[in-house]
């Protein structure tokens, strides 16, 4: 009998630890050996000794936290490339979440566990698509694990945005979006929809967009949204962090029309709270049907849930004869869409 993953993967205060391999996955405090799924700050923490991740995730970490804090020794691993660490087989599969995002696949003495990190199943022009890996235990997030969360196709949301731009050509559409992943995906979706005007960006979004471009993601012409002369941005689509769309910064633009791009925009109340005039339901996380489909397709006997709305998911899995377990990992869900 292959050893059940619960006998060799343990939840510690630092995070999920692979005992025979001697490494942590997405540890929350500095450790000797860390495997990192993606660059969001609730998964990629500074100060580790050795860091193993895709080269894109390593580049994102260096950009965000500086070379000194992004790991003393950084080891890049390509998707599908296999490593053996103290008898543990390790490889990465695309998670479809943000550029460089990976699922960490582990096999020890014939038993297999997959730590998905954050993921989505929808196409995203800025990153490799999710790849399914069958396993005995699948470790999933549950950010949008409630039946209310059905994300519409992102292309339809972009079409709604462009209709609004045509309807209010003198106003400046200011879209609140997160700096890593969401901003670049929105830009790429706008380009796919034929929007080829330069896109002004709030300063906080520029560095990671430039890094995406350096890593080969085509985003077209991006310009700094330095606010001099309100008229300059009339009719433009401007991107800014969510915290800025209702602030003084945005009010200096020409008759700004605040938009917010997030899976949470499915909840009307959330959209109203922030003074958002045009909520756009665009998410980089799996919605409820995607979570259920993925948990079934990996054919795992057990699903472990890192963070989010685990109760609803465990209940729904139970009805399908799959055992669910909440890991209650602390520190997850603090960046991106997890919660605002
Ligand atoms: Zn994430």
What would CATH call the homologous superfamily of the largest domain?
Answer: Ribonuclease Z/Hydroxyacylglutathione hydrolase-like
Count of all domains: 2
Spatially, the strands of the biggest sheet line up as 7-8-9-10-11-18-19
Largest sheet: 7 strands, mixed
Q: Give the C-level CATH assignment of the largest domain.
A: Alpha Beta
Strand portion: 25-35%
Number of strands: 19
Bound small molecules, deduplicated: zinc ion
User: What is the third-level CATH name, the topology of the largest domain?
Assistant: Metallo-beta-lactamase, Chain A
Please give the count of helices: 8
Q: Give the rounded overall mean pLDDT.
A: 94
CATH architecture of the largest domain: 4-Layer Sandwich
InterPro entries: MBL, Metallo-B-lactamas, RibonucZ/Hydroxyglut_hydro, Xnuc_lig_assoc
Protein name: Ligase-associated DNA damage response exonuclease
Keywords: Exonuclease, Hydrolase, Ligase, Nuclease
Domain Metallo-beta-lactamase: 27-167
Topology:
Elements: E1 9-12, E2 15-18, E3 23-25, E4 33-35, E5 50-53, H1 55-65, E6 73-76, E7 83-85, E8 88-94, E9 102-108, E10 111-115, E11 137-142, H2 154-167, E12 172-176, H3 182-192, E13 199-201, H4 203-214, E14 222-224, E15 237-240, H5 248-251, E16 256-261, H6 268-273, E17 278-280, H7 288-297, E18 302-308, H8 310-319, E19 323-326
Parallel strand pairs: 3-4, 4-5, 5-6, 10-11, 11-18, 12-15, 12-16, 13-14, 16-17, 18-19
Antiparallel strand pairs: 1-2, 2-3, 7-8, 8-9, 9-10
The chain binds zinc ion.
């Amino acid at each position: 009998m292959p050893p059940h993953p619960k006998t060799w993967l343990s939840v510690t205060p630092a995070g999920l630890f692979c005992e025979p391999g001697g490494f942590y996955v997405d540890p929350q405090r500095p450790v000797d050996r860390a495997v990192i799924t993606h660059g969001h700050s609730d998964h990629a923490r500074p100060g580790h000794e050795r860091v193993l991740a895709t080269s894109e995730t390593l580049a994102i970490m260096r950009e965000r936290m500086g070379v000194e804090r992004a790991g003393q020794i950084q080891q890049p691993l390509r998707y599908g490339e296999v490593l053996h660490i103290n008898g543990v087989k390790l490889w990465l599969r695309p998670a479809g979440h943000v550029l460089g995002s990976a699922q960490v696949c582990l096999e020890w003495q014939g038993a297999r566990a997959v730590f998905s990190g954050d993921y989505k199943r929808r196409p995203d022009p800025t990153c490799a698509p999710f790849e399914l890996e069958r396993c005995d235990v699948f470790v999933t997030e549950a950010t949008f694990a409630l039946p209310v969360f059905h994300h519409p196709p992102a292309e339809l949301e972009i079409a709604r945005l462009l209709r609004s731009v045509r309807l209010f050509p003198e106003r400046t559409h200011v879209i609140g979006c997160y700096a890593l992943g969401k901003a670049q995906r929105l830009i790429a979706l706008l380009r796919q929809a034929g929007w080829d005007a330069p896109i002004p960006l709030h300063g906080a979004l520029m560095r990671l967009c430039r890094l995406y471009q350096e890593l080969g993601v085509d985003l077209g012409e991006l310009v700094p949204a330095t606010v001099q002369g309100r008229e300059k941005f009339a009719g433009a689509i401007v991107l800014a962090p969510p915290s800025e769309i209702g602030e003084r910064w945005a009010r200096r633009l020409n008759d700004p029309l605040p938009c917010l791009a997030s899976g949470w925009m499915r909840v009307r109340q959330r959209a109203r709270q922030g003074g958002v005039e045009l909520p756009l339901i665009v998410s980089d996380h799996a919605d409820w049907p995607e979570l259920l489909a993925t948990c079934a397709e990996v054919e795992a006997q057990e699903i472990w849930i890192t963070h989010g709305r685990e109760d609803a998911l465990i209940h729904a899995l139970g009805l399908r004869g799959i055992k669910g377990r909440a890991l209650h990992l602390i520190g997850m869900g603090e960046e991106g869409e997890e919660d605002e």
